[in-house]
Amino acid sequence: MSSHEAEVHTISPELPAMFDGMKLAAVATVLYVIVRCLNLKSPTAPPELTYQDTPLVRFLLKSCPLLTKEYIPPLLWGKSGHLQTALYGKMGRVSSPHPCGLRKYLPMQDGATATFDLFEPLGDHHTGDDVTMVICPGIGNHSEKHYIRTFVDYSQKQGYRCAVLNHLGALPNIELTSPRMFTYGCTWEFAAMVGYIKKTYPQTQLIVVGFSLGGNIVCKFLGENRANQERVLCCVSVCQGYSALRAQETFLQWDQCRRFYNFLMADNMKKIILSHRGSLFGAGSGKMQDADLSRLYTATSLMQIDDNIMRKFHDHGSLKEYYEKESCVHYIHNVNVPLLLVNSADDPLVHQSLLTIPRTLAEKKPNAIFALTLHGGHLGFFEGAVLFPQPLTWMDKVIVAYTNAICQWERQKPPCQSATQPEKPCSEEKP
């Protein structure tokens, strides 16, 4: 045998082994990345609750066990806040229903026209009472969004009337009637909807629900004026950030890809604004100029859009002033009705530092519960076994379960005990 042949026989058996090793290493690397990205090793757990020990809270935790039981997301992808958020954003909800409602138009003093959709209950409420959910969706959202439709359909079947605000300018087929659209904390349209419901249904009681930006609006609305809390049984806020001023810094960071989400949301806001270009920038619009329009085209963040466009709708002198005055953090301590504040620890849009606001509030106010889930993303909260999520989410179910418990508390509480002051003991009757 020649030396060349001997060399071939000596080296060639090692080559397949080397390639097999590289394949195994590549597969191991991919699996490691998948496990890390999908957060598969993360445990499931009940929500972390912050509250004061009061008769009302004890009753709510007993009557709403979802707050104390494990939230279990779909096994393969549900522990990733990014995938929960992305699937909610792109797919909405599984088998989304189409509730039938009636659209209402409310003229505002400045010439704007607020719209909301009204959905009557599909059955009797378990207490026999007339209860209306007044709902404020997330940024640029409206009653036709999948997560709103799913929640409304479920609430109707539980005996609730639902009124859903369509953010000013959010509906693509509704033209603006004044040079103004929705902003981060403007409560005018929501107040008009609530006023309509109170006047039209004088016997109804209200459940206030806000999602994301809508959570900021409803908490600010209730805290702005004590009269706004009349006939309100409770308020539920899901996935809001509480302070735009504090949030703006975190939105410029790449941690949890927030800068990327910021860009996507800014791009969506651009499309909404430009779809109403004639109303906002046309002749007679007053506050907007051609320079503002050119800056809008080049904006790559929500902060740039807020500074160049949004703050000017209400004549705020600076971006800081706009964020300060439109954030519920300065009003929420005035809310005395029962409050359920829900956030997710893996929400890529809401930085952990912002969660000290609801946690501190729940530590100080006896009417507040702060529930922080380990998983859920931003308005995701999908539930399911392995791959396919259920049509109803944990978010849908926990809001209705909490409000059912509040309604039951109102029916059976002692006459001297109010849901807003549950810690006050009953005095003994004198003969």
From TrEMBL:
AB hydrolase-1 domain mapped to chain residues: 132-385
GO BP: any one term: medium-chain fatty acid biosynthetic process
Catalyses which reaction(s): an acetyl ester + H2O = an aliphatic alcohol + acetate + H(+); 2-(5Z,8Z,11Z,14Z-eicosatetraenoyl)-glycerol + H2O = glycerol + (5Z,8Z,11Z,14Z)-eicosatetraenoate + H(+); a triacylglycerol + H2O = a diacylglycerol + a fatty acid + H(+); hexadecanoate ester + H2O = an aliphatic alcohol + hexadecanoate + H(+)
Coiled-coil regions listed: none
Enzyme class at the top of the EC tree: hydrolase
Active site positions: S212, D347, H378
Record Gene3D superfamilies: alpha/beta hydrolase
One GO molecular-function entry: monoacylglycerol lipase activity
EC number: 3.1.1.23, 3.1.1.6, 3.1.1.79
InterPro entries: AB_hydrolase_1, AB_hydrolase_4_sf, AB_hydrolase_fold, ABHD4
SUPFAM superfamilies: alpha/beta-Hydrolases (SSF53474)
Keyword Transport carried by entry: no
Function text: Progesterone-dependent acylglycerol lipase that catalyzes hydrolysis of endocannabinoid arachidonoylglycerol (AG) from cell membrane. Acts as a progesterone receptor: progesterone-binding activates the acylglycerol lipase activity, mediating degradation of 1-arachidonoylglycerol (1AG) and 2-arachidonoylglycerol (2AG) to glycerol and arachidonic acid (AA). Also displays an ester hydrolase activity against acetyl ester, butanoate ester and hexadecanoate ester.
Family under the similarity heading: Belongs to the AB hydrolase superfamily. AB hydrolase 4 family.
Protein name: Monoacylglycerol lipase ABHD2
Organism of origin: Anguilla anguilla
